[in-house]
User: Which sequence fits this backbone?
């Protein structure tokens, strides 16, 4: 599909929201509590947070929720009965206000859930999502999308990408996919014809800080480096970096039972936790934090490119912002690039 | 901090300690922990009002402990944590030297933990005005309102356990939440799982928490979980009298008085 | 609608309250049958997490009971327990868990009548309060499909 460019006036965004609501769409948009933002089911346009460089949590939750029931089970005299998730129950969702680094992260996450095993639940959830990306006109010292192949106006992953056209507050809407087009069809008159073409001057400027290709090559011989120990000494081994990351996909499967019935649920897990790799025997192959930190970087910059042909990092900078001890991934990647093996 | 840098260098040069734990300038406006093992790195040490991470969380960390004798730049909350940890046999004079930083930002070195304890006991743990106000506000609510407040506040918690990781007192190699036989607390982030996790956390910290706010500062979602431990602190004082972490090891919740008072047991 | 029958779980120490409850039975004192008794070696073993688990599983009220102070079979289990109850109760109060639904008592092996009274008044007061829907609502998972942030 050719990208169709339209103009959306400042006031039209709210009208669009209302029209979508009238068409009974569920809209997940940034919502702020205690100064931290995440994507929530939103009923009113006014409740949507604005002005954020990046939301605290990523939008991956929409297809890979922190907690998801896989099946129900119950035990009776007749035996065990099991009921799986009804994929038809998954609602249509509009994901509103996603930054390009999150939108492109959906592709990276999908590559994991479509690898050897096709994850039906994830695939179905995602198929119901229409992504409204919003380009970045600002960035901060933690952003580095341009170093990992992205950019502040990247259309990858978005169904429609909105770019703020300066002070007046109008938007350029790039309609990228059929899904995006279906939304435009609901509100034709809000998407005006336009001959505006260049959006670059409205985007944040973000110089490239390292080369992800170089990092990948470097990592091939970096497994035994002392650098991992140096970098990770202050790491506390929590799950903050993984849980806010748009591409971290590790999960745990747990049975939550009450008496004779219960559910099997999938919930987020993190390679940073000390128990993540503990074997039943008690042996832990990653028994120090440096091994766990190494796994985090290797997985994203070596194993994923090798096996899935994508990098596991979109440069959103969330992990650096969320880390309680200032483990700044950008700084660490740069020092990996600079250190001699 | 010139004094601190100088002292760190001396200690490392004389091999009195193997590592000095302090703060350095981080990225952006952040500060962060620094582990100085080579004298030349000591120049990176800083100290200012942004240095609020509780460094005592590192003295029980395997990778740090294994380096050998540690010295730690310790503000008042860090010193309190160390006394608490010493009372729980996690640190002692043989493996830790305290380079105290007084509330006036002066360096003060202690020969041993007894001196640290004496110093710490000059000060009371005071809950700051903003949180005191929050506690009062909550106290005035009805029980149902408080329930709603906590269910709402804890709902965002995605169980990253950064609060636990940042707390010096949470050093267990296996936390109750990590047990699954029996499983005490639902592993997934659910309303119930979150509530039980935080009740459990607050109970395990009762009488041990020294109110450093490291847990709250670590939470990527800024959930006011420190209110739980603060309330426990206030109530414990009310019921059992003033207490401070102490080397005598008479931890509040592992001791009792035959005449402890209550008014609810029939 | 049928009258609400509260579900009550009693966590009791083996040496005093359990024996006391036995005495209530053998003395043929009539008392409400809503209580499921769980026997513990000592109140010192009654972990507060167990009380939460009882609410999780649908209890509307809880009784915790053991030997009077100075009568603990293990000397100090109940003194330790008492400290914990004090702090746990205050945490429950702070988090909005209904403290009216948790009754603490000392019942000796000789106090069969007291046990009957504790049970009867607890059942009556929980009947008054109604089912503990607040907690049940939170515990209703895993009926919910998905939990987003
Ligand atoms: S690793 Fe960090 S910077 Fe990269 S995508 Fe994940 S959260 Fe963003
Ligand atoms: S890097 Fe930071 S956020 Fe990640 S596990 Fe370590 S301390 Fe936690
Ligand atoms: S619970 Fe929080 S305030 Fe208390 S000692 Fe631990 S980190 Fe500090
Ligand atoms: S740090 Fe915050 S989000 Fe993470 S487990 Fe603690 S309260 Fe929950
Ligand atoms: S044996 Fe009854 S309370 Fe300890």
Assistant:
């Amino acid at each position: 599909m050719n990208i169709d460019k339209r103009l959306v006036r400042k006031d039209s965004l709210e009208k669009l929201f209302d029209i979508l609501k009238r068409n009974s769409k569920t809209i997940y948009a940034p919502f702020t509590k205690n100064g931290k933002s995440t994507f929530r089911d939103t009923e009113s346009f006014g409740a949507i947070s604005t002005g954020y460089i990046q939301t605290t949590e990523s939008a991956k939750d929409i297809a890979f929720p922190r907690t998801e029931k896989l099946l129900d089970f119950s035990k009776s005299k007749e035996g065990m009965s099991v009921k799986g998730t009804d994929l038809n129950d998954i609602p249509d969702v509009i994901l509103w206000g996603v930054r390009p680094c999150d939108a492109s992260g959906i592709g990276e996450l999908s590559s994991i859930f479509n690898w050897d095993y096709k994850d039906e639940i994830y695939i179905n959830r995602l198929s119901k999502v229409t992504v409204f990306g919003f380009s970045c006109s600002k960035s901060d010292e933690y952003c580095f999308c341009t170093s990992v192949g992205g950019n502040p106006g990247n259309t990858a992953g978005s169904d429609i990408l909105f770019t703020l056209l300066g002070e007046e507050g109008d938007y350029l809407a790039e309609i990228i996919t059929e899904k995006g087009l279906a939304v435009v069809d609901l509100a034709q008159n809000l998407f005006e014809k336009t001959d505006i073409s260049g959006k670059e001057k409205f985007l944040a400027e973000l110089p490239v800080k390292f080369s992800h290709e170089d990092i990948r090559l470097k990592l091939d011989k970096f497994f035994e480096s002392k650098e991992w120990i140096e970098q990770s000494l202050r790491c506390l081994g929590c799950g903050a970096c993984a849980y806010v990351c748009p591409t971290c996909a590790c999960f745990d499967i747990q049975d939550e039972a009450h008496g004779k019935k219960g559910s099997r649920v999938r919930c987020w897990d993190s390679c940073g936790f000390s128990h993540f790799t503990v074997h039943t025997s008690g042996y832990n192959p990653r028994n120090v934090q440096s091994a766990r930190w190494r796994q985090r970087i290797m997985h994203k910059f070596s194993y994923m490119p090798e096996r899935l042909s994508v990098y596991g990092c979109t440069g959103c900078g969330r992990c650096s912002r969320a880390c309680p001890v200032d483990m700044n991934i950008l700084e660490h990647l740069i020092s990996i690039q600079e250190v001699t093996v | 901090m010139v004094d601190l840098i100088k002292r760190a260098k001396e200690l490392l040069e004389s091999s009195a300690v193997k590592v000095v734990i302090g703060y350095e300038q981080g990225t952006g406006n952040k500060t962060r922990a620094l582990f100085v093992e080579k004298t030349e790195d000591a120049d990176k040490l800083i100290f200012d009002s942004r240095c609020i991470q509780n460094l005592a969380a590192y003295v029980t960390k395997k990778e740090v402990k294994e380096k050998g004798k540690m010295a730690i730049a310790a503000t008042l909350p860090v010193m309190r944590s160390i006394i608490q940890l010493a009372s729980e046999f996690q640190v002692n004079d043989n493996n830790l030297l305290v380079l105290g930083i007084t509330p006036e930002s002066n360096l003060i070195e202690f020969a041993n933990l007894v001196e640290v304890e004496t110093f710490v006991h000059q000060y009371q743990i005071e809950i700051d005005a903003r949180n005191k106000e929050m506690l009062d506000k909550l106290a005035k609510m009805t029980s149902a309102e408080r329930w709603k407040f906590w269910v709402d506040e804890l709902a965002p918690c995605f169980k990253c356990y950064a609060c636990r990781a940042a707390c010096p007192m949470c050093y267990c190699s296996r936390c109750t939440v990590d047990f699954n036989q029996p499983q005490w607390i639902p592993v997934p982030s659910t309303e119930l799982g979150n509530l039980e996790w935080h009740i459990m956390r607050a109970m395990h910290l009762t009488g041990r928490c020294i109110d450093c706010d490291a847990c709250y500062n670590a939470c990527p979602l800024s959930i006011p979980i420190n209110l739980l431990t603060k309330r426990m602190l206030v109530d414990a004082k009310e019921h059992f009298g003033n207490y401070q972490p102490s080397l005598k090891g008479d931890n509040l919740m592992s001791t009792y008085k035959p005449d402890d008072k209550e008014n609810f047991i029939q | 609608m049928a009258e609400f029958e509260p579900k009550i779980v009693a966590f009791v120490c083996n040496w005093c309250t359990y024996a006391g409850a036995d005495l209530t039975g053998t003395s043929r004192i009539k008392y409400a049958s809503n209580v499921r008794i769980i026997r513990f070696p000592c109140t010192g073993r009654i972990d507060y997490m167990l009380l939460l688990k009882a609410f999780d599983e649908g209890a509307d009220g809880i009784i915790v009971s053991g030997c009077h102070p100075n009568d603990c079979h293990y000397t100090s289990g109940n003194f330790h327990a008492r400290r914990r109850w004090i702090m746990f109760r205050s945490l429950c109060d702070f988090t909005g868990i209904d403290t009216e639904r948790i009754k603490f008592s000392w019942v000796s092996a000789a106090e069969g009548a007291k046990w009957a009274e504790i049970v009867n008044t607890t059942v009556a007061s929980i009947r008054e309060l109604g089912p503990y829907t607040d907690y049940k609502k939170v515990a209703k998972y895993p009926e919910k499909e998905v939990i987003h942030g």
